[in-house]
Write a structure and sequence with these properties.
Arc Repressor Mutant, subunit A, mainly alpha, 192 residues
């Protein structure tokens, strides 16, 4: 069930209140940007996707259902728009991993930790790019957004079995890629 603040914001969106877009960006922009970036691997493309997602929800507020989690809904829109971009012909080219924004991930204090953090960010984005678009979406929703299989199933309009299968296969690919690269990552959910 959506919280009171989400319902208040949803009402502003349904009423096509101009301030609603600013409030959405303020509350959920970073989360949407992080998810879009993890899908696309390009910060500027991710920004475009977030803008497109916010524009979509403001133009068509009826697509949000009152009983849903607004943040999860917005992240799912961003991920689906990113999936569409990845599937388009022009996006199948390789982007350099330059200028990875530190604000998307944890920031360390020492120079050594900052360097290790940057290497891990670059490596993880590279590893995520090796997954198919659907596997990547499920992994991001599950591990980075802490959504349950049931929530992902509802948001993506897939049966729970499909979500579990994509999660299992995505983990398997990630595990192989991580072992191949000799990289160690902490995971806040069940181990990959």
């Amino acid at each position: 069930m959506a919280g009171g603040n989400d319902l208040w914001l949803a009402k502003k969106i349904w009423d096509k209140d101009e301030d609603a877009a600013f409030e959405v960006v303020s509350r959920y922009g970073n989360t949407m940007l992080k998810s879009a970036y993890l899908m696309l691997g390009d910060y500027h493309e991710a920004e475009d996707v977030v803008q497109e997602a916010i524009w979509l929800i403001i133009k068509k507020p009826e697509i949000y259902k009152e009983n849903g989690d607004l943040e999860a809904f917005l992240v799912t829109i961003a991920i689906n728009l990113a999936r569409d971009r990845l599937r388009s012909f022009w996006k199948k080219r390789v982007y350099p991993k330059e200028h990875l924004p530190k604000s998307l991930f944890s920031v360390s204090s020492s120079a050594e930790e900052v360097a290790v953090d940057k290497i891990q960010r670059e490596s993880m984005v590279g590893i995520l790019e090796k997954l198919s678009v659907d596997y990547r979406a499920v992994i991001i929703l599950y591990y980075y957004q802490d959504l349950s299989v049931k929530e992902i199933s509802t948001l993506m309009n897939w049966p729970e079995g499909t979500v579990k299968s994509k999660l299992h296969r995505g983990r398997k690919i990630l595990r192989k890629e991580i072992e191949k690269g000799g990289i160690s990552y902490g995971v806040n959910r069940t181990e990959i």
